[in-house]
């Protein structure tokens, strides 16, 4: 075999091994589903973009769930973009679903976050849909077994977390359980990170209460268990993204496991996000590595954080421009009970990266 051909094949094989094929999050393409699609017949499942065979089968047997899952796909994109709006990697490539760039195709810490958020979002959306009565197959979550305390009583309608976790994991994990879904290392990584997302979702379940009593005395509080908003769950996952652990697929006994690359004397923690491939710095546009670059991104001149002009622009400098902002002003309260405001226009200086 010629050296050049051998080099090409070796590189091609390495690319295959490093690529997760992103089967597990292609379903986010459901966000593009037309609102006009009724989804009331099983043949409609074939019209949905981004689903693997096993997910199409789940669609056929759970048609009533699909509008909720489509909503979850939209929430993943919106929440990911918002959560990373102050970072060099701003999750913009998620909108390319199902045709991702390498920032999400490879086993990077960015793909770790998206898998975790996607798993949390689909279970979160289903659990909330049970509460609002949008799903015929479920209702409110169970009343907790413990006593809530003096002056408190269980009532209301709890988010049905158990149902959300069961149905959400069936759908989101189905692609990673296919035989042809990338390397074993990537499947293990994606399944691990998806479970981390669900663990953070479980931890977000908290007691919420409503006051009752004479003249608003709040002598009795009716309480239920409800989930935090998805944006708060995403912020917890962002913290885990920033401290994610790089792992390798290494033999231990008769099987191979994912273990921390630098400190492989311990197993991977169930609560930490993990990744296989290092990410670029995302400073310059380079589609070969999945980087959009930060040119023309807005930055904050007075910030010391990740959105600062120094960090966002990677030391290249920035250009100022003037922007007109319309705001509510001169607001007055009228008895009883409304507020009127005028609209005022002011000019502010903003900055974009060179």
Plain-language structure description:
It is a single chain. This protein is of the alpha+beta class. It has nine helices and eleven strands. A three-stranded mixed β-sheet has the order 1-3-2, with no helix packed on it. A three-stranded mixed β-sheet has the order 5-4-6. Helix 5 (109-132) runs antiparallel to helix 8. The two termini are 47 Å apart. It is found in: Secreted, Extracellular space, Extracellular matrix. Belongs to the Wnt family. Pfam families: wnt.
Structural class: alpha+beta
Helical run tally? 9
Cα gyration radius (Å) = 24 Å
Runs with pLDDT <50, length 5+? 3-20
The whole-number mean of residue pLDDT values reads 90
Instruction: Compute the number of strand runs.
Output: 11
- Report the helical percentage: 25-40%
Largest sheet: 3 strands, mixed
Order of adjacent strands in the largest pleated sheet: 1-3-2
Question: Assembly type of the shown chains?
Answer: single chain
Order of helices and strands: HHHHHEHHEEHEEEEEEHEE
How are the SSEs ordered, and which strands pair?
Blueprint: H1 3-18, H2 53-61, H3 66-83, H4 102-105, H5 109-132, E1 152-154, H6 161-173, H7 184-203, E2 206-212, E3 220-226, H8 230-242, E4 245-252, E5 255-260, E6 274-275, E7 285-286, E8 291-292, E9 298-299, H9 309-312, E10 318-334, E11 338-353
